[in-house]
């Protein structure tokens, strides 16, 4: 009885394994929620660092290597500091370093444009083409809405 159950479970795993990886290579269209669970700016300037967060969201949407995530997080810190908020920049850096891990099923995780779960890793040539295509479509939509 245990043998049959083991064979059944192993068979199901073998059949589902390729399906997961086939699905995991399809990038969803880019979306940004601004600064996620953080304000987009100050009370006086409500969208002061929103542009910094949107660029950061683009990096997080496409994902990539651990070093690319670290560079994106540091770029967010620099961007927010440049708009005059160095203390907020450090707070935001701490938040994204802790909350942006690809291992949590959040809407703002590293690589959120790809189906969960997705680990750190360089994008393949096919994945880079998807990023380029969807980036172009996003730019065209943004321009046409203005």
From TrEMBL:
SUPFAM superfamilies: Phospholipase A2, PLA2. GO terms for molecular function: phospholipase A2 activity. One of its GO terms (biological process) is phospholipid metabolic process. Residues 1-24 form the signal peptide. It comes from the Bacteria. Keywords: Signal. This is Phospholipase. It comes from Shewanella algicola.
């Amino acid at each position: 009885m245990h043998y049959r159950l083991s064979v059944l479970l192993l068979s199901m795993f073998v059949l589902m394994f390729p399906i997961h990886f086939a699905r995991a290579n399809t990038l969803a269209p880019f979306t940004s929620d601004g600064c996620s669970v953080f304000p987009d700016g100050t009370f006086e300037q409500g969208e002061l660092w929103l542009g910094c967060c949107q660029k950061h969201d683009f990096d997080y949407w496409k994902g990539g290597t651990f070093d690319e995530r670290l560079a994106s997080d540091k770029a967010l810190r620099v961007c927010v500091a440049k708009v005059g908020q160095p203390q907020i920049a450090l707070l935001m850096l701490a938040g994204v370093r802790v909350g942006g891990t690809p291992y949590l099923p959040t809407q703002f995780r590293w690589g959120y444009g790809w189906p969960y779960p997705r680990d750190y890793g360089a994008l393949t040539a096919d994945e880079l083409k998807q990023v380029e295509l969807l980036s172009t479509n996003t730019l065209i939509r943004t321009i046409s809405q203005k």
